[in-house]
Known about the structure:
alpha+beta, Penicillin-binding protein 2a (Domain 2), Beta-lactamase, 3 domains, five-stranded mixed β-sheet, five-stranded antiparallel β-sheet, 17 helices, 16 strands, 37% helix, elongated, disordered N terminus, disordered C terminus
Amino acid sequence: MSAVAARSERSKPRGDRLRLVGQRQQTLALTHHRLMLMMLLFAGATAVIVMRLLWLAAFGDHAGRKTVITSFLPERGDIVDRNGLTLARTIDAWTISVHPNKIIGDKLVLAEKLADLMPEKSADQYHKILTSGGNFTYLRRRALPEVVAAVNALGEPGLAFDREPERLYPQTALAAHILGWTDVDGHGAAGMERVLDARLSDPATRGQASALSIDSRVQGAVESELYASMLRFNAIGATAVVLDVHSGELIALASLPAYNPNMAGRAPADWRFNRATLGVYELGSVFKPLTVASAMEAGVIKTPFKMFDAAHPVKIGRFTINDDHPMGRSINVAELLIHSSNIATARLADEMGEARMQAAFRKLGFADKAHVELAEKGKPIFHSKWGRATLMTAGFGHGLSVSPLHLASAYAAMVNGGIWRPTTLLKRPHGSIPEGRRVFSERTSERMRQMLRLIVLEGTGRNADAPGYRVGGKTGTGEKPKNGGYAKKSLVSTFAAAFPMDAPRYVVIAMLDEPRGNAETFGFATAGWTAAPVVKQVVSRIGPLLGVYPDEAREVDLQDLAVMRGPKKAGH
């Protein structure tokens, strides 16, 4: 303001000056209100846009097309158990990379420091990367935060750090052979991760968790008991299956040794081998009830009191079929199972003949890979033509090889009323049980439930008797093939069971691969001493979890099976 203007302003009366001040204040207030109104309008417009985007994501546009805002979804969907417990989830992880053409420090020194911090490569290998002159190379993906911090502390601007999706298995090794793992690019490489890869990766479905049929509580109990038994008997491996006999849902499926899918690449190949579905074995005497049930269906057995000569070994060419504990007399069908007679079973299979035996086993799925979603499935050893020796030995589980899952499916059909159903690792919607196919009559199934219970009460399966659960089942001890014969000390010991046998709900299979006897078993490594106790412990632990409670006042009706009692034993 000039001096003249200032004098002019001062020369105005005091009232005029006050009016001018008031006008300025009004102008400022009006400007303030206008700014506030503009800010409110801007905020409202932003809110409308955001709400519109969310509405489109949820309900689609006016043409009925669905718009998915993929930025709100994980890179890969979750896998959960049947109760919603998270088994696999995608999180953000760190990557460490290098731009060799941007390195400014001593590359030899840097290579040595990197080898100290990330020893999966040698200093020479790191030096070759650093001197390659390339634009970009990953040094480690899925790096732990502490490793990232240590590498960052080297202060080299040519090193880069970024975030990328990582698959996390929060239950670590639990159900590892079911879940499988993903590769470094986030695609399923094994297990259900591979099976569900398209669904888990699809933006339209990855926001919805994929539910498996397994119960993590049951899976944990099974793995715990199996691992303890594997250590106790110094076995090289073990497997177990828990199967719903009516729906075909797998409630648990375990294979040991196990591995941590968070670090699958570091596990030995043998640990990643799924013995429950990929391994096929000559499972031994667990086949005897299936042979008996098939003979009932074929009319070869019309009564459980049909007699078989068990006093004399069966000779086939240069081979002789014997019993470990010879009965020295003729025995009936129930005794055949109670005392696990190879001789009587061989005679029964011989009566059945090759055509009927093969047809029966084919109906049970023994000629095909196991019916389950996993890609890791072994092909059974099931020859198209059998000689008489194969026919007789197949009756008691030698001469053909199947997986433990095959056995579980067959036992489910034998006890559930006679319907074979494919197994699944996906939770079935309520009421959506597949029709399946009939392989045994209701009457045959009822009779087999009686005899399986008798085996546990009176025969080789007594060590599997979990009080109050009415367990029924059969032992099986197979010798591993070796050099054209069998290795008598390399055993596969299996117990196949169901409970409660008066109204079966679950099949339980436990198998130990090459167990060793100890002082507790008097040196025996057969199934009655090794695998049967696993089933007893498993049933006792998982029964209440599955809504099956012990009731010692209930029992299977066995009154019409008046069995001649022979010597009791725990072995075969």
